[in-house]
Amino acid sequence: ARLELSGKLAGFFSSPLGAAYEAKETFHCLYEHDSRREAERAAQAWLNGIPGLVAPQFKETATALRNWWEPVFNYYEHPISNGYTESINRLAKDMNRMGRGYSFDVIRARLVYDDKARRPNRKTLRQRIRSTSAPSDAAATDYLTFTRAAASTTTESRTINYGPHIPRLCGLLEAGHFE
User: Fold this and answer.
1) Which of 110, 123, 122, 124 is nearest to 169 (CA)?
2) 110-162, pLDDT tens digit by residue?
């Protein structure tokens, strides 16, 4: 049974469907490499090794990879994706379908500035302690007393908003909050 199964798999990968599957899986492995150099070598090997059976179906992908080579492989130096932006765009489209007649400005404002959606994504970036001298009325007339006035401390914090929290937005959208 094992030999029979491996024979079927060999036949599968020689078929157009199997070749397409193998090309897709190999392409998806490009981001699993440890370094940019390894990934670029693997990408070049993928481009040169696309089976002729499925080459027309992968032409657009291969062209996009060649045209965007630098940005694609810059991921290895700065591992940041635009997944968050794409998720917000999808939510905006869903909201547009649900709320008939909204203008773009209204949709954007409700997605980006809605207080319920932003709440979980706020956090304090840092706190800074600053000392200030505040003389009393009596001390203001006497220079020596003024310079010896007790310093008070003020804590300053800066809150950073990272935009709407996507799971929270999805929940609000499903609950009909934006209708």
Assistant:
1) 110
2) 777 777 776 666 566 555 555 555 555 554 555 444 444 444 556 667 766 66
Structure tokens at 139: 């001390």
> Would you tell me how many other CB atoms lie within 10 Å of the CB of residue 173?
18
Query: For the purposes of burial, counting CB atoms within 10 Å of the CB of 105, is it exposed (0-12), middle (13-18) or buried (19 or more)?
Result: exposed
Gyration radius of the chain's alpha carbons: 29
Q: What is the largest CA-CA distance in the chain?
A: 101
Q: How far is it, in rounded angstroms, from Cα 1 to Cα 18?
A: 21
**3-state SS, residue 123:** strand
Q: Kindly give the interhelix angle for 83-98 and 104-113, rounded to the nearest 10 degrees.
A: 120
Contact 108, 85 (CB under 8 A): no
> Which three-class secondary structure state does DSSP give residue 70?
helix
Which pTM value belongs to this model? 0.48
Q: To which H or E segment does residue 67 belong?
A: helix 59-67
Provide the angle, in degrees to the nearest 10, between the axes of the packed helices 2-14 and 16-28: 80
- In whole angstroms, give the CA distance from residue 61 to residue 132: 61
